[in-house]
Amino acid sequence: MDGSRSKRISQKGKCRETQVDGLLEKAEAFARGVLESLEALTGTTACKGVQITRLKEWATEKGCWFESMDELGTFVDRGSENEVYLSKENSQFIYKLNDFRYSDDNLSPFFFRLKAQQKLFPDCSYTFMGFSMNREGKVCALLAQRYILFGREATEDEIHDELLKFGFQPEMGGEYYTNGEFDIFDASPNNVLVGIDGGLYFIDTIIYKSDEANLSVYKSQSPKYSKNE
Fold first, then answer.
1. DSSP-based three-state secondary structure for 61
2. How far is CA 57 from the centre of its chain?
């Protein structure tokens, strides 16, 4: 991002006082420990369900399990992976309950994606707050994100041009974009907003570490493709 745009979007606010410094790294380390233990015992990396169960126990012990979203926000929407809540305490933020849909066998892609979002789109990065239960009774990651004042959704051409500026190139007829380090999926108009300042905000894309297998993984998880089958 250029310097002028970074200045324009550098407004910052504080999340809830209960946020713990380094919580994302601690949760990631715990989940990685579960993965490594099971891989050593069974030889498989398919352990997402076990990681989620253990993370709930860990979050309860560490004081970052939120029993109910009622005290935090008001439910406003449900996407393919997130429940979205407007904050009751700070109108500059929204909360998202992420159900880990786009992590395949284990949660490593989820933690990678949060850090990639911070690096690529710092103006609308996620703050990891802990864990809670969504309305379907699933354990989810609780994320805070800056509320973007916007006028409309971005067009596909605007998204395309913006990603080209960032050094990304379309693949498979625009199914996703890559720069050789990151693959970005689902950069669609409903996930990219045009702010009142005219800037584009990539609020909810799917980011993987570049790999030729990512397209098939994404398609297997995305409701957009399962509906067409």
1. helix
2. 22
